[in-house]
């Protein structure tokens, strides 16, 4: 076991454009049986945790609810509480927004999940703060983008104070937190939970986001999923830890990645191309183009050339998702690619977006995953399957045993809490605030 160990997590698919809904094997993204299937598979594969993303407003496209959001999804912590009853060891991670929640309420709900799951709760702190989402929570305004990490950092600090305000096995103490964002005091209602401090995950990429992760998070969920970008991100974020008196191993870096397996590498490549064609249907190709252009392009032929008009940089055609920073530059790049290779709109979108991260035979994928971790491009992966709910089955059956043979992945759970799966130290009780 001297090799650096890989950490694995399972992202429940749905709502993103990775999921292939047209596949006859696709199931519901609402039924509990789908959550249960994926969670049980992840636990069978000895994964560290199961992960739920969350958005707080249905996205809109040209004034209509985005197709993928029509079906909706249940609230994350509620789902995880139910999964706690059908799993034993698997960590349970909920994405919860720090902009539109309150520390007391969230600390209570996460401590409750940690109790019900016997020490498996995690919180993915996200900071989306756009005015469109804010309309669902309006109290006379929403948070300015510049202030969201200030609020998130103070939010996490306040939640930790609440968790620490009750001594292990002891009666409620009191807490008092006073800062620019929150002025709260009282007694915390939930006894100290098995982990004491449930695991904190951070997803966000700006300099402020990375600094926040270095100061406060146990895990970073990142989009940097190529070897080169991964190594750069890894060195950058780990390099920030010393400032906070933390060791490199105190923070695990886990990119979200997709994968396609096949009987051989060539078979996997062929499958991957087929999946890309399903993910980018003719209709989705136009939607993807409209997201960049910010214009109604419904009159364009997906099999024809790209529009020669420029994007509208100030467009509000698409609401509730982050638009690319410089749409005019992206459009120029796509046009150049299409002209150089003679690609249609659909082919250009297929080439330019969402290519699968790991494609190959199980042996090829296992070797590539291990290389990533061994060379410090990551500490592990949040796997994003493209099928609900069976998308992880082949990975657990075919890749996990190879990682185990290589000595890079556990052959049994050695602890019971998520902190122990992640190799994180048990938190020392710091005592309540007066
Ligand atoms: C890998 C990844 C996953 C994310 N998942 C969610 C999510 O499920 N829900 C959400 O509201 N925001 C999510 N976000 C958005 C972040 O919380 C944040 O608002 C966004 O990345 C902008 O912050 P930044 O400028 O620091 O990157 C995610 C971001 C990243 C990088």
Automatic annotation (TrEMBL):
One Pfam family of this chain: Bac_luciferase
Alphabetized, the UniProt keywords read: Flavoprotein, FMN, Monooxygenase, Oxidoreductase
Q: Which GO terms describe its molecular function?
A: monooxygenase activity; oxidoreductase activity, acting on paired donors, with incorporation or reduction of molecular oxygen
Highest taxon of source: Bacteria
Q: Does the keyword Oxidoreductase apply?
A: yes
Family assignment? Belongs to the NtaA/SnaA/DszA monooxygenase family.
Q: What's the protein name? A: Alkanesulfonate monooxygenase SsuD/methylene tetrahydromethanopterin reductase-like flavin-dependent oxidoreductase (Luciferase family)
Q: Which organism is it from?
A: Streptomyces nymphaeiformis
Ranked from the top, the taxonomy reads: Bacteria, Bacillati, Actinomycetota, Actinomycetes, Kitasatosporales
